[in-house]
Write the structure tokens for this entry.
Amino acid sequence: MQQHKNSLLSQSRIIACSKKVDKLSQFYCLSGSEESIFLHQKKKEPVKTIIKTDHAPAALGPYSQGVSVNSGTVIYCSGQIALDPSTQKLSGDNAADQCRQVMKNLGAILAEAEADFSNVVKTTICLTDMNDFGDVNEVYGEFFNDAPPTRATIEVSRLPKDALVEIDAIAVV
């Protein structure tokens, strides 16, 4: 298609062109003797915005607290552990208390992106002990009422700073 387009353009003298922009851009070019229609798929680059807030713990490595793409319509929140944002120290002695802090951290990142838990469509919970599933589930449920997101829960051997719970989230606004 591109080669044909270039060939036609080089063989004709273009008098006028108009452009219609939408998902599939059409270029109408009128040459001296004929009208040609070229279809060109306009590639839209995703716009990536870093989400950073002092109301959630700073990243422990080379990653962002969150990233929004396409003008903030999709928000990816990095996995959060139960770090207190003001001290960067682990908060809570059990999985339920740590889950509560994790959810506060996620809430702060979502708020910075002008979203909240009602926008969350997917989470992943990592537990160091699946026996904590019920306690974590109870706390987690306090943040999602009638329309909870999809979720995966997995047991892992270890988490950063020896946390008991880590949760990441994806939101759509």
